[in-house]
Amino acid sequence: MAQQKLEIVLAGLRGDRPAREVCREHGISETLYYSRREKLPKSGREALAGKEERQGERELRRKVAELERARVQDL
After folding, report:
1. For residues 28 and 1, is the Cβ–Cβ distance under 8 A?
2. In this structure, are residues 33 and 23 in contact, taking their beta carbons and an 8 Å threshold?
3. Which residue, 39, 37, 42, is CA-closest to 19?
4. Segment-wise mean pLDDT, segments of 10 residues, the chain, 75 residues
5. CB under 8 Å to 26, separation ≥6 — which residues?
6. What residue segments make up the domains of the chain, in order of their start?
7. pTM of the model
8. How far apart are alpha carbons 40 and 20 in whole angstroms?
């Protein structure tokens, strides 16, 4: 399913035919197509994020959880 969504967006981005035509061919609305197209760059960045970025995110989540536990104990 995700692969199909990606292929539809990429077909529209190629520019050899209008997005409207790609949407009609795949039975989706243009609104849905453009919504998916807007998500693609963000998803791509996340997928290609370096190991350091992912470790940084894990560390932040760990600190947040630690602070939440401390707050619960103080109540």
Report:
1. no
2. yes
3. 37
4. 89 92 96 92 72 72 81 68
5. 8
6. 2-74
7. 0.59
8. 18
